[in-house]
Each structure stands twice: as C-alpha cells, then as structure tokens.
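1st attempt posting a full record on here, be nice pls
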Amino acid sequence: MPARPRQSANPAVRAEPRGIGTARARDPLAREVKLLGALLGQVIVEQEGLAALELVERVRKSTIAIRRRGPDSAAGRAERQRLAAQLEAVDLPTAEVLIRAFSLYFQLTNLAEEKQRIRALRRRLRASARGRIDESVASAIADLRRQGLGADGIEQLIRRLSIAPVLTAHPTEARRRTILQALRRVYRLVDRLDDPRLTPAEDAHARRRLREEITLLWHASPIRLVAPGPLDEVRSAMAIFDETLFVVTPRLYRVLEEALDQGAAESARRTPVGPFLHWGSWIGGDRDGNPNVTADTTRHALRIQADHVLRAYEAVSRRLMQTFAARAQESGPLGERLATDRRELPDTARELERRFPGEPFRRRLGYVAERLRRTRLRLAAPDEETQAPGAGGAYASPVELDLELAELADAMTAIGLHRAVAGELQALRWQLATFRFHGPALEVRQHSEVHAAALAGDDPTDDTLATFRAVAELQRRFGESACQRYVVSFTRSPADVLAVLELGGRASADGSPGPDLDVVPLFESADALVGCGAIVGELLAEPSYRAHLERRGNRQEVMLGYSDSTKESGALAAAWMLYRAQEQLVETCRGQGVELLIFHGRGGAIGRGGGPMTRAILAQAPGSVDGRLKLTEQGEVISDRYANPAIALRHLEQLTYAALEASTPDHEARLRRAAGEGAGVMGELAATARDTYRALVWQEPGFEDYFRAATPIGELSGMGLGSRPAARPTSQSTLDSLRAIPWVFAWAQSRANLPGWYGTGTALAEYRRAHRSGGLRRLRALYRDWPFFASVLDNTEMILAKADMPIAERYASLAGEVGRPIWRRIREEYALSVEQILELTGRSRLLDDMPVLQRSIELRNPYVDSLSEMQVLLLGRLRSLPADDPQRDELLRLVHLTVSGVAAGLQSTG
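the predicted structure (as tokens):
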C-alpha cells in the first residue's frame, strides 16, 4: 500500500476534508452524506496517503462519465476502455484501497439513508391527523370502521389476528456482526449531530468520535475470516432481539390499543389487546442440508435464547423496582406473596427490607428479579435435570410469573396507580406473553428424504431420532410452545408428513415421552405446488392424521416455498403457481372444516419472492390471509428491517395493516372479481414465461457453464456467509443441486438479476400478439384492478430497474466467445421486458411512479460500477492462474471484498 503519512500538513484536509462524492448540500440527507464522505476522505488520506484518495476520485469520475455519455455510445465505450486500462495497472494493495473506499462509502451512505427514512416518517406522523399515515395500524382500524365492520366485527378480527415473522439464517448477510455493530455506533453519532441543542463542544466531540469509528471501520475486515457456526448465527439474531424485538413488540400492541381507543371516553377501560405477534426462528433448528445443525445444536440454541430473554425480564423488573416507589398496605394477595418471598428468599429479603421499607411494590419487583435470575440459571443449564422446575425460588413457568404480575397490577390499581399498570407493567406482561421463557419459537426443518432414510434404517448417525428426542426435552424444559413446529422440506405426498409422526413415536420407544408436534408440509417444486391441494386433501382424509389434527386444535399450517419455485420456473410463472396453490389450500381446508395458516417462505430479493411486503400481502389469494400472516425474514433483511427500532416498528405496523386489510369481506370480494377476470390471462402468461425461462436455464446447452463463468458463483461458495453449504449434498456440483439463495446472489452481483424478470417480456409480447389490439387493453385493465397482477409486474419493473445490462455485459465477457449467444438472448429478453412493461404501465421510464427509489438507483449506480469493474478484473486474473499459484488466495480475498461492497451498494444480496 502507499506509505501512510502522519497527520496531513494540508490545512484543507484537516479543516474540511475531501471525500468520495462530496458536494454542496442543503437538505439533511445530502448534508449527512457529505459529512460522512468527507470524513472517510480524511481517513483515507491519513491512513493511505493523498494519492490514494485522488485515485479513488479518478475512478469515481470515470464511472460517472461513462453513465453520462451513455455506456453503449462511442464516447462511453472509450471512457470504459480508459478506466479498464487504469484499473489493470493497479497493484493488488492499491486495488484493496479502492475496494475498501467504495465499500465503506456505501455502508456509511446506507446509514444516512436509514436516518432519512426515519426523519421522513416522523415528518409524516407530525403532519397527519392522530398519527394516521398510510399503511399504519391506525389507518387500518379507520378503514375497517368506514367499511361498516362495527365494534364487534373489529373485535372478532383482532381476536384472530396473528402476525408471525420467522427469523432464518439463510446465508445472504454479507456483513460481519462486528461491522454491523460498528455501523450502529456510527448511526448513533450521526443521529446525535442532528440534535439542535448540542453545544459547540458536544458537536466537536461527536465529530471526533465519528472519525475514530470510521478509522476503525477502515481497518476492520468487512468479510468473515471464518464461516459462522449455527450458534454464532443464533447469537447474532439474539443481538437483534436485545436491541429491538424485545422493546418494539409491546410498542406495536400499544399502537393497536390506541387505534382502537380513538374516540373512546377518557375514563373508558378496555381489556388489553392480546399478544398477536408470534416470533419464530429457524436458526439452530433448520437442518435441511446443513450438517452443522445437530440435536445438541438445537438444545443449545434454545438455551442461548432463554438466557437473553430472562436477562431482559430481569432488567425490566429491576428498572421498575426503582420506579414504583409508592407506599401501600401489605394486605391481601400482595401481603401473602411478600410473606412467601421472605420465607423462600431470606438473603434477598434482608437486602430489600433494608432498602425499601414501607414500599411493597418495589420489594415485590426485587423478588421477581431475583426469581428470574434463578430461573435463568436453571433453564440455561446444559442438563435438563440440573434442578427440578420451581426449585430454589425459580419460576416453574411463565404462567406463574404472569400470575404474580397480575396480583401486583391489582394491588397498584386499588390505590389509583392504574396508569402505571397500563403502562410499563402492561408492557412487561405483553413481552412475557409473547416471548415466554424461550424467546422466538424454535422451528425444526428437515428434508423429506432424510425422514424416509431414517424409517428405512439408513441413517447411520441416528441424528434424526436424536432430533425428536431433543425436541421432547426442550418441550419439557421450556413448554410446548418453545419448539412445536416441524417443517418438512420438499413434501411430495401425505407419506412425507406422516413419516414425522411415526419418527416421533419411535423416538419415545424407550419410555420417555415423545414430542407434541405440528407438522408443516413445505411445497416448493412446481409439481408439488400444482398438486398441493390434492396432497393436503389426502392427508386430511387419513384417519390417524385427522385424529392427530383434532388433538392439535384442528389447525393445519402449510408452507409455500418461493425461492426454489422461482429458480425452477422463473419469477412470473412461480408467482402464479404460488397464487393457485393458495386457492387450492383455502378450498381444501375450508371444505374439511380445518383452520388454515399459510407460511410464506419469501426471500429478501425479488428473485426469491421478496419485494414490497404490504402490496404482496394484499395481493394474496382470497381467503388465504383471514387475519393470520406468517412469513420468513431472511438474511440481510433481518438487520435492514429490525436493527433500528423505528424502522422495525414501521415494518411490523405495515404487516399488521396488510393482514387486517386483506381479511375484510370487501377486499376478498374485490380479489375474487379480479381473479375471475384475470385467471385465464395469467395462465397464458405464466405458461409462456415458464417455457421461455426453462428453455434458457434448463435446456440451453452450455448455460450452466455460462452461469459459472459470467457470475462469481464459484467464488461466493468460499465466503463463509453462513453455516449452511451453498449446495445440497450430491455426488457432483450441478445447477440442480445449487440452492436458490446463492443462485440469486450470483446474478445480483453480476448486475443481471436474471431470475427476477427473464421470460416476462416474451410472455407479455406473445399474449399481445395472440390477442391483437385487445391484448394490451385487457392487460392494462388487469394491472389497474387486480392487486396480484399489479404486484407481480411492479416487482418485475423494480428488478429490471436495478439490473444493469452494460455492466452485466462486462461479466458476460468472462464467458468468452462461446457465451456470446447466451448473452445476446439475455440482453434481448431484457430489452423486450422493459419495452413491454413500459407500454403496459404507460410510463416513459422504469420507476417513474417511484421517484425516490429511481433517484437512489441512479445516484448509486456509478459508485457500484467502480466495484463491479474491479470485480470483473479480479475474477479474470484469478481464473487465469494455475491452481497452485501463491497469488490465488490474495486475489480471492479481494474478490470477496468486492462482493461485500457490491452488496452494500445495491442494498441486496440474495
């Protein structure tokens, strides 16, 4: 690397440092981006020298010039050749400086944009009537009232309301936990600078701290040096729990309560809303294709969760102990409970009696905190027989704790402290009702073929039966709700579901009780989605299973897989198969008198079922929501949606809003009318799109070789993004064995985004040709009237806008001349898709109806281009070296750095 100078003697660098993309700025976002870019520029000069920053600026200006002149113009191509020559001359240490500079710039810019989202949200809330903004809980309740649902109808809908986000450890989070934590510190400092009450000294201190943090980030490796294990992933998720989920959950309940109370008399009292958030987690329980997840892993995962949850309860209890400093009589249940406390916890009693004489509420909460500490020590112990439940002053169950909190609430209400009861104490009771003693409910997932092998006696490790025994142990320790759902991947027949119950019975053959399970079939292949209604119908007709279901409350959960179906058939065809699958499942379960919950296995990227969630929920098939919503939160989506409490609350409000709106009779009636008119059209479009997609991906000779050459898929495998391997175990690595997540991730890195749009253009064009002038008119009517059709096309438009064909062509060049025919097909289909989408929507440019997103993509693209150019260059160098060349490791590390940087720039991985 260039020599690292001491503090620059240049006054301009010290006072107002140059930075990446700095410019005059008046609006808050531009001002913060300017500040962060300037500080980054100063850090680069301090750490790498002024020449390094000047090189970064030359590369940045060159990529901007290519965009402005037109990538396909003669001037643009000439500029690209000059840039390529400049980068080719850069040695590896200097290349790393370039990569780090642009990557860190994106990380910092993302923070500024996150802050702007919150700033805009608060501005809208201040300007609205009673906080009633679009897609909020308040607006949903107001809509229900306008539709004439009435108080009883709304109450019934609220009672069956269930929102279940499930955290998963899919390996699409390209950032290390260390980097994420450092970025949160930077965010808090930037937020502090926005406080108009800061003194000059406080402002200077915050800026100094910012410079320190950015310097540390400059020296930190943005990629993992060692792949995380499943328990590392559990700890990362629980860090989000500590910072956000625990705090935001009662806030959401409060928002609904306030929306229901709007217009009610001041003295009105209502029963608090029930806990409708049902957090789940696959992290530590998902063993499908992940040999690192064992029965012991699952046991340990819940112990980690319990440790975090019980520490959180204890901290709240101690805080409330300091708050509830009211004098009261020690009579009735409160007096009896305190007497029991003194008898069972004498050491704690001496301390509390000394500190809080005459203040029974404070002493009671002190005892609660001590009992929670002992409960944590018991439940987090590795041996379930370490202590009997309830021994040593620990709580036997969350019910016991809630009973004590209810007694405390009654005693406080009796002396007029009902506001305190309805506030902080109610928040704790909501948290307890939601998270119990185990945190997010841990779900187990395994492939159907593994079960078949275990039943046939072909499981040499016996880990399958060990898993069922572990689940039974966890249910005994934490309660059934801690781990009761068992997801069966690639379900193809009722036998795949029944196998789980049989294995559960075998696991208890030694005399110990087996687990009580809700078995969740997962349909993800095209054949399974098409036939899922019939499969579930046969399952419900099986007497033994129906008896099992009746014991479980006559409820059936079914999971639909978006990732694999999209990889297999393309985005448009998969969307229609998933919609029809929902219709089938609703009809089947209603006909059998069974309550249905559809679990949507959606990803963060559009190529895996992602996209704007509110619109997607409102576009689901009629009857498929009915107040109940369950979906996966995958990869980088977890930190993007839940790292910041304000953004997390907004996201959860949007989910709640959509679930309520999608469950009204009016909404379902509109969907049925639109679907009746559009089903035939979608059938034609989906068939053409699927044939077009499969003709390229699955039938075109040499396509797999092209994919491996024109994307960094091979290099992604060694990044250690998660504990699960990128491909399912087979005798040889093939496109079929590759998981959908790295498939989409690789196409995103190459800027082609092919899984999200390929086949759509041909489908729309063929439909219009077949139906002449009436085709476009009918498509536009469906786009206007059918939320499902509009959602599918809007997602396609978004992914087309994020794709970049001139940059994708640079990656295609890695495939050489043999790959040119395939590249031409991809580019032609892209152009056709853009043309057809624009004609259908009537817009002149992609995303004209979403100017903020459109502008963000346009501003980011030149900076991402710099990293993409470096990635293409490094991939070419790496792949040209012999296997034993000592330079390979360093080149591969730099490629991994570009992957992390491009992901940050695009704000998306897989």
